[in-house]
Automatic annotation (TrEMBL):
This is GntR family transcriptional regulator. The keyword Metal-binding does not apply. GO terms for molecular function: DNA binding; DNA-binding transcription factor activity; pyridoxal phosphate binding. Keywords: DNA-binding, Pyridoxal phosphate, Transcription, Transcription regulation. It holds the Pfam family GntR. Residues 1-61 form the HTH gntR-type domain. PROSITE patterns: HTH_GNTR.
């Protein structure tokens, strides 16, 4: 695709607008993420420039810089045993699912794909004020402690729950960084890791980049089954299990406290850690059932490594998160974090602390929760009216997404491509699986659309595709 587009683009004048994502999806019969990857290649080569909200344009010609022949790198990378496919500990730096999550939709495309809420739902005013105050602080440009600012760690410890202190918390650069750091700190390349199936693409990406061997376990209505986990840990010798206890991405399933305690008991009996990705703790809905407590509060022997992130409820640019743990593993986490990033920038930490301790914080979270509940109810009603009740047999009363069930035998890639051609961006279910799934699924996010009217229009564009 990139080669063909290069031939088309090269003769164009600088500033010429390229066809939209929708048009390219239709032309090539490809998925939205494949089109995005092709355009990214062209951008790397200096042929095009993307302007969010406006489109993709022919880049201005620049004097050619002399460069040597880099084709040798393909052979060098292929010969490296650490990257070879047959190596059980090979690190795989390839994640179309994560790339799709971060893709910027073309003008005219309604985003029902992104995992981040539209900025109109987030505390933009409070963030701007916090950033201004933080920049004026005499301490903003001093080197912070490796583990993070003491006051920020204390706030995060109290937010996670009673029984934790700031000495149990490490400030990291967001939830994705926490996943990556924890996997590399706890497991070695080639080790097995137990994952939910389906699961968040960022979890898959972090596991593959760490060279871990993924072992996926199916979920029921209450999450991962303890008997399946017991069998998998005994069979594989895995020492790490990754769980999303609340509004699991993408299924929306939440653990009950009883199920959570069973899973923790199984993990403890096998001397395995549970990496708890508690991404949706502040995305409960006003009509939902009381959520299960954070798993780290249900045990005291250090089984759980807890992840808490602020990006979902503040801004994707406020890359602040926390790893909380008890025992010697915390020092391993701290060292891995230090090797990767040294420290989380102090201005960012001070900005987060200003936001979290402001009078606007609780109001902004409550406002987001109310808006998400309203959008969920509207999305559920519109999906059922447009695609039928069979597509949505159940849905979570929390989080930001719905997990659509396409008819057996349907081609989810064709569905997503056809939706994009009509102007609606969705996430194909394949991206949430380590292996090819048996049934077609699609994730629909109701948080990213600019307005509720856009949300309804985006769903209506799917009419007739099922």
């Amino acid at each position: 695709m990139a080669r063909e587009l290069t031939r088309d683009i090269t003769p164009l004048a600088a500033g010429t607008r390229l066809p939209s994502h929708r048009a390219l999806v239709t032309r090539f019969g490809a998925s939205a993420s494949t089109v995005s990857r092709a355009l990214a290649l062209l951008a790397q080569r200096g042929l095009v420039v993307s302007r969010p909200g406006a489109g993709t344009f022919r880049a201005a010609q620049e004097p050619a810089a002399s460069s040597g022949d880099t084709t040798w790198q393909e052979a060098a990378l292929a010969l490296n045993p650490g990257l070879a496919d047959g190596n059980p500990g090979a690190r795989r730096l390839h994640s179309p699912g994560l790339s799709n999550t971060l893709a910027t939709p073309s003008p005219g495309v309604i985003d029902l794909n992104s995992g981040y809420a539209h900025h109109s739902l987030l505390p933009m005013t409070a963030l701007r004020a916090a950033l201004t105050r933080a920049a004026r602080s005499p301490h903003a440009w001093e080197r912070p402690p490796v583990g993070g600012l003491a006051d920020l760690r204390m706030w995060l410890a109290e937010d996670i729950g009673a029984g934790l202190g700031r000495e149990d918390v490490l400030v990291v650069g967001g939830g994705q960084a926490a996943l990556s750091t924890a996997m590399r700190a706890v497991a070695q390349p080639g080790d097995p890791v137990i994952l939910e199936a389906p699961t968040y693409p960022g979890t898959l990406a972090a596991a593959r980049a760490a060279g871990l061997r993924t072992v996926s376990l199916p979920l029921d209505a209450h999450g991962m089954r303890p008997d399946y986990l017991d069998d998998a840990l005994g069979r594989t010798g895995a020492r790490l299990v990754v769980l999303q206890p609340l509004y699991q991405n993408p299924t929306g399933v939440s653990l009950t406290e009883g199920r959570a305690r069973e899973l923790l008991a199984v993990a403890r009996s096998h001397d395995a850690f549970v990496l708890e990705d508690d991404y949706a703790r502040h995305m409960t809905h006003d009509d939902g059932i009381p959520p299960v407590k954070p798993l780290i509060l249900l045990e005291s022997d250090g089984t759980v490594i807890h992840i808490r992130s602020l990006t979902k409820v503040t801004s994707p640019n406020l890359r602040i998160g926390a790893l909380a743990a008890r025992g010697p593993v915390l020092e391993r986490l701290r060292t891995a974090h230090m090797i990767d990033t040294m420290v989380v920038p102090a201005p960012l930490q001070h900005t987060a602390l200003e936001v979290l301790t402001s009078s606007a914080w609780k109001r902004s979270v409550a406002r987001l929760q109310t808006a998400l509940a309203q959008r969920r109810r509207l999305a559920v009603r519109t999906v059922v009216e447009t695609l039928g009740a069979d597509v949505l047999p159940d849905h979570p009363r929390g989080g930001y997404h719905l997990w659509l069930h396409l008819p057996r035998g349907a081609d989810e890639s064709e569905f997503v491509s056809a939706a994009l051609a009509r102007g609606t961006a969705l996430a194909p279910g394949t991206y949430f699986h380590a292996d090819q799934p048996d049934v077609p699924r699609v994730r629909l996010s109701y948080a990213a659309a600019p307005t509720t009217a856009d949300l309804v229009t985006g769903i209506h564009r799917l009419e007739g595709l099922v």
